[in-house]
Fold this sequence. Notes:
The chain is α/β, with parallel strands linked by helices.
Amino acid sequence: MPFVTDKQTLDDLNLLGKYKNNSVINLFNLTRTAGAEHLLESMFQQPLTSVANINRRSQIFQYFQSKKLDFPFETEALSATENYLSGASASNILMAAGQNARRKLLYYMGLRVEHDLIANGLLTAIKMLASIGGFISGLLQQDSQSPFAAELQKANLIFNGNKLKWLESVNIAGPLSFFQTVRCDYLLRTTLRDEIEVILELVHAMDVFIAVTDVSRAKGFNYALALTAEKDVLHIEEGFHPCLEKAVPNTAELDADNNVIFLTGANMAGKSTFMKSFGISIYLAHMGFPVPAKSMTFSVKDGIYTSINVPDDLNMGYSHFYAEVLRVKKIAEEVGAPKNLVVIFDELFKGTNVKDAYDATLAVSEVFAEHRNCFFIISTHIVEVGEALGQRSDNIRFIYMPTEMHGKIPVYTYRAKQGISSDRHGMMIIENEKILEIIG
């Protein structure tokens, strides 16, 4: 079953968006090849729900991080190789000979572009494939039992098979003869097309593993351990937002007995960042990627939904409040499906008056909390909701983001504490900014 989420969640957590400088995917995108960039995007779009698959990918990343490899192939030559190999090919050897004869004739007539393009592409491809084969063989000799050994062995068998063994005997010191060109071109672009695709996919995968682990090492990320859904646990130790400089870490813990974090605190105290950090770690962990945390253990979930930046829809005639209601309805349908989900609500029903927001937040939070198979973070600045929930439910963990007053100046530590916030500094901030004096 695929991991479920939606565009709203991806936007809330800023996970995708290759043209957004602060997106999570851009943080990891140090890839050297177009194929690796496409593979990275695919990984981000398709998190995993199998414990075995998550942990195996995580182990491969850890293996590459321990090896501290630089990308071993010259990117310009690799790009030229891929361009050549992706070109149109002859359906049989006679057609290949005819095409090469035509290019040769045009060459002698002074029209050299097509001939040189194919000749140079073929030589570059032969050299690159020999380099890839040597690197794979060397890596296998160093560690034949690595988590990545199966992929390496598959490619190594192709290089050592009869169809590609001839690479070792090709003299690439000078131009190839007519018959060598015909034979090699036909083999690489027609006969061995599927095998070559396997080899290039391996190169793209190595590119991704090297790029991601370079980021992990530089940022101090670590690897999460996936557990079965039946364990129903989540522990993120010292998790932080991966895209913020000097991000303040916080710990979050949930299980079947305490499956809801009810988060309070003043505006600007860090509630949204706490929740986004939490959501990003959950998502990356289900991809098998390194996570921005000191450590993480989690039971695999079916998906994640957030309601953080819900836009109104003027074209549909939706107010902000009605858009919020529709978002909660969408998530309620998913929770009741039933699915094992992670759900994040930031400031429920902030588009209506305080009385309605209090009643709605209390009622919705209480009902959601009954779904013990799901994990929730629900934030509000209406602290009275937390006090009422504490009397009605026994499975809610209360956390708040504190504000320290230095005289009349609020200072935010961004370090979560147990309990419910009692901070009410809105009017003080208004007075500090002298808004009333400006109006008067």
